[in-house]
Write a structure and sequence with these properties.
9 helices; single chain; six-stranded parallel sheet; alpha/beta
Length: 213
C-alpha cells in the first residue's frame, strides 16, 4: 500500500511525535518521592497513552484513596517544567520526514491526543514544531478518551474524511486499541522497549520508527 491510497493521516502526540514520555515518567517519580512514595519505573510505563482521568485513578488505586493527587499534579508539573526548560523536548525519529512527505503529496494530517489542548500546544511549542501541526484534536473535545475511538472520529470531522480512509499512527496499547476500534488503518510505532504483542496483533503494520513509513 501507498500513502496515496489514503485521504489523511492522524498522529498521536506523546511518544509518537515527541519524546515526552520519559520526561513525564521522571517528573512523576520525583513528585511521588517528594510525597513519600517509592514508585517503580515499570508502574509509569503502563500509563503510556492513558488520559489524565485514567492516570489519576491508577495512582489512587496504587497509593490509596487518600492519595492527594491534586498536590501530586502540582509537584509533578513543576518537576516536569524545570526538566524540559533545561533539556527541551526531543522530536522522535522520522516525524519531520513524514510531515514533509505529506505536505509534498498534499495529504492532510492532524494530531489526536489524550492530552489536554493547553499541554499539547505547550509541548509542540517547546519542541519548536508547533507550526507544523496547526490541527490538533485534544482530550476535552470528546466524552471518552483512548482506548475508546471517539477522538479519532472527532479528528476526521475536522479533516472532512472517513475514518476508513485514514492512517492512524500510534505508539501505545491504548492508542492502537482506539484506532482499531475506530476502523482506521493502524500503524503501531511502539515507544516502549518491549513491544506489546496484543497491540502488534491489532495493528495493520508495526514499525520501529517513522522513517520506515
Amino acid at each position: 500500500m501507498n500513502l496515496r491510497d489514503f485521504e489523511a493521516v492522524i498522529f498521536d502526540l506523546d511518544g509518537l511525535i515527541l519524546d515526552t514520555e520519559p520526561t513525564y515518567f521522571a517528573a512523576w517519580q520525583d513528585a511521588a518521592a517528594q510525597m513519600g512514595f517509592d514508585m517503580p519505573s515499570d508502574f509509569f510505563t503502563h500509563l503510556s497513552g492513558l488520559s489524565y482521568t485514567e492516570i489519576r485513578a491508577l495512582f489512587e488505586a496504587r497509593c490509596g484513596k487518600h492519595f492527594d493527587f491534586d498536590l501530586f499534579h502540582v509537584k509533578s508539573s513543576a518537576c516536569w517544567r524545570e526538566r524540559v526548560m533545561q533539556q527541551g523536548i526531543a522530536v522522535k525519529r522520522g516525524v519531520l520526514n513524514v510531515v514533509a512527505r505529506l505536505n509534498a503529496k498534499e495529504i492532510p494530517y492532524c494530531i489526536a491526543t489524550n492530552s489536554p489542548r493547553v499541554n499539547a500546544l505547550e509541548c509542540l511549542a517547546l519542541a519548536n514544531i508547533d507550526h507544523l501541526f496547526p490541527l490538533v484534536t485534544a482530550r476535552e473535545e470528546v466524552i471518552h478518551g483512548k482506548p475508546m475511538p471517539d477522538i479519532f472520529f472527532k479528528a476526521t470531522e475536522k479533516l472532512a474524511v472517513n475514518i476508513q480512509s485514514c492512517v492512524v499512527l500510534e505508539d501505545s496499547p491504548a492508542g492502537v486499541l482506539a484506532a482499531n476500534r475506530a476502523g482506521a488503518f493502524t500503524v503501531f510505532v511502539p515507544s516502549a522497549f518491549s513491544i506489546d504483542s496484543q497491540s502488534q496483533a491489532l495493528a495493520d503494520l508495526t514499525l520501529a520508527h517513522l522513517d520506515e513509513l
